[in-house]
Design goal:
Blueprint: E1 4-9, E2 18-21, H1 24-27, E3 47-49, H2 52-61, E4 63-67, E5 75-79, H3 82-93, E6 98-101
Antiparallel strand pairs: 1-2, 1-6, 3-6, 4-5
């Protein structure tokens, strides 16, 4: 049986945490908005802010872009997995912009 983690909503409409595969702990950074972005809220440990317009774009495009840390001109588009889509739909449907990854 594969391990899962829970993602807790910190804002938006009331809802239950969502379960995600353990690997999502590393993948969530692909979706987070940087803390130095305009309007970014102060976040705690294991907390992430995701701008709603990005959620809508990723769902519409079916992918997200990753910039190489070694070459800013090298960008890869990665197709959303079913888990990514489920998580993004959860964010969208409950108007969630801030989440916390719960420890085991």
């Amino acid at each position: 049986m594969s391990k899962t983690i829970r993602v807790l909503p910190l804002d938006g409409r009331p809802c239950e945490p969502i379960e995600m595969p353990e690997r999502f702990r590393l993948e969530v950074v692909y979706f987070m908005t940087p803390q130095d972005a305009p309007g970014a809220p102060k976040l705690g440990i294991s907390e992430y802010w995701i701008e709603p317009q990005n959620v809508h774009k990723w769902l519409e495009d079916g992918c997200f872009s990753v910039v190489s840390p070694l070459d800013a001109h090298s960008v890869a588009e990665i197709e959303l997995s079913e888990e990514h889509e489920r998580w993004l739909e959860w964010l969208k449907n409950y108007q969630i912009t801030r989440v916390r990854i719960l420890k085991d």
